[in-house]
Automatic annotation (TrEMBL):
This is Nickel-dependent lactate racemase. Residues 282-420 form the Lactate racemase C-terminal domain. Residues 8-206 form the LarA-like N-terminal domain. It comes from the Bacteria. PANTHER family: LAR_N DOMAIN-CONTAINING PROTEIN, LARA-LIKE N-TERMINAL DOMAIN-CONTAINING PROTEIN. Gene3D superfamilies: 3.40.50.11440, 3.90.226.30. GO terms for molecular function: lactate racemase activity. NCBIfam families: Ni_dep_LarA.
């Protein structure tokens, strides 16, 4: 038997599967970096890509807006790398009172002071002003132009009135934008709700019933309208500098890029592909996948990333077991509404086209996957919550494995994905183009 240990919230779940039909673990490369996390951070800041260093860019009297991710991205260890960025700014003559941290919440909820302390670390949280972006506060926005896709770009005025905007974050695969990090800190990060919805509406095909745009998905940049529209929005804002991390298999900072917000991010994409783009020779009958634990499985909204990645490794009609605690339930009313209030994919799509929201898109994506595959969710979500889209909810991984065998006459070829939110399976013949 093959022993499985899958992260579940802040704990783990154990189970075993027969080794006869086990096809292997799909996970990022386990090449531990010989440098410490601190050394990786410093090396990136000292060797910016196509840019001068931060200390050379800023001058005394400059005002700086540092854009940071929200609590759902706490895994990127902001409290570790932000002090180095502040130190660079201070060395350039920038005073603490001229630095503001703006949390790129996009359309997510606001955060507590305790959560700000987790993100920045206690010392920085005490020293600096931390503001949560509110995408619905139009009066706090500045209009900067329109993209070629027709997206009106309204951006938080705190950022736009600053001398320099410094973007921070992490680069992982993203099921809409191709990759997170980079331009995503601008749109949707600190953009108005109107801008966010216009951009994300590009995720659907041009005709009703056509479903998701074929070029929208993880690791896709070329001809991805979401990615290209976000990039145009960032070009209107022109951030001064970027610092993005790439996590390794241990959840530590395994690489980092800094410098020009386009060119540095592209190098980061290549690093992600090298670490988390995992080639497989064939698809399986069953994939057992974990989001990777808290906070990546804090709610179904976040857990959908692992589900989306897992489908790339399983045959149509196959089974996906998703291990995600989801202590905050659906995570957003939009996810719940699209799943529970609409009976099938076409009606869900029409509702999405008429009243688009990112949360509703996520609910639609989950429902679409549940239509194409048998999905079993190991979670604290109430079992009746997902009956409308035929997702079975159980409380243990062992129970899920038993259910996966039901009605199956033949043994199931099985993959295991311990860190599904990060890992993208790719058939050997498929390559991911970059732009």
């Amino acid at each position: 038997m093959i022993s499985l240990k899958m992260k579940y919230g802040r704990d783990e779940m154990l189970a075993a599967v027969p080794n006869q039909h086990f096809m292997g673990f799909i996970e990022g490369k386990k090449q531990a970096n010989s440098n410490t996390e601190e050394e990786i951070i410093q090396k990136a800041l000292n060797n910016p890509i196509e840019s001068r260093s931060l200390v050379e860019i800023v001058y005394p009297g400059d005002t700086i807006c540092i854009v940071i991710s929200d609590i759902t991205r706490a895994w990127q260890k902001m409290s570790l790398y932000l002090p180095y960025i502040v130190e660079e700014l201070n060395r350039g003559g920038v005073k603490d009172e001229d630095i503001t941290f703006l949390c790129a919440t996009g359309s997510h909820r606001k955060q507590s002071r305790r959560e700000h302390s987790i993100l920045l670390g206690k010392d920085l949280a005490k020293r600096f002003r931390v503001i949560d972006h509110d995408c619905r506060d139009k009066e706090a926005m500045v209009y900067v132009g329109e993209t070629s896709y027709g997206t009106p770009v309204w951006i938080n005025e705190i950022a736009m009135k600053s001398t320099h905007i410094v973007l921070t974050g992490a680069i992982v695969y993203h099921d809409l934008a191709g990759w997170s990090g980079g331009k995503k800190s601008i749109l949707p990060g600190i953009a108005a709700y109107e801008s966010i919805m216009a951009n994300h509406g590009l995720s659907l095909s041009k005709t009703a019933g056509g479903g998701i745009h074929p070029k929208v998905g993880c690791g896709i940049a070329i001809d991805n309208p979401i990615h290209e529209d976000m990039l145009e929005a960032a070009n209107l804002v022109k951030p001064s500098f970027i610092f993005n991390v790439i996590m390794d298999y241990r959840g530590k900072i395994g690489a980092a890029v800094a410098g020009d917000y386009i060119k540095a991010h592209k190098i980061g994409q290549e690093k992600v592909n090298a670490i988390d783009g995992v080639k497989i020779k064939e698809k399986s009958d069953l994939v057992i996948v974990s989001s990777g634990g808290y906070p990546k499985d804090i709610n179904l909204y976040q857990a959908s990333k692992a589900l989306s990645n897992a489908k790339e490794a399983v045959k149509k009609g196959g089974t996906i077991i998703l291990v995600s605690q989801c202590i905050e339930g659906f995570g957003d009313k939009g996810v719940q509404e699209i799943i529970q209030d609409y009976s099938e994919n076409y009606s869900q799509e029409i509702e999405l086209r008429n009243n688009y929201s990112i949360a509703k898109y996520t609910g639609y994506l989950i429902a679409k996957i549940a239509e194409d595959y048998k999905v079993i969710l190991v979670s604290e979500i109430h079992p009746s919550s997902l009956k409308s889209i035929d997702i079975q909810v159980v409380t243990t991984l062992k129970e899920a494995i038993v259910k996966a065998k039901e009605d199956k006459k033949e043994p199931q070829k099985t993959y295991c994905m311990p860190y599904g939110s990060n890992t993208l399976p790719k058939l050997d013949s498929i390559t991911i183009p970059l732009r």
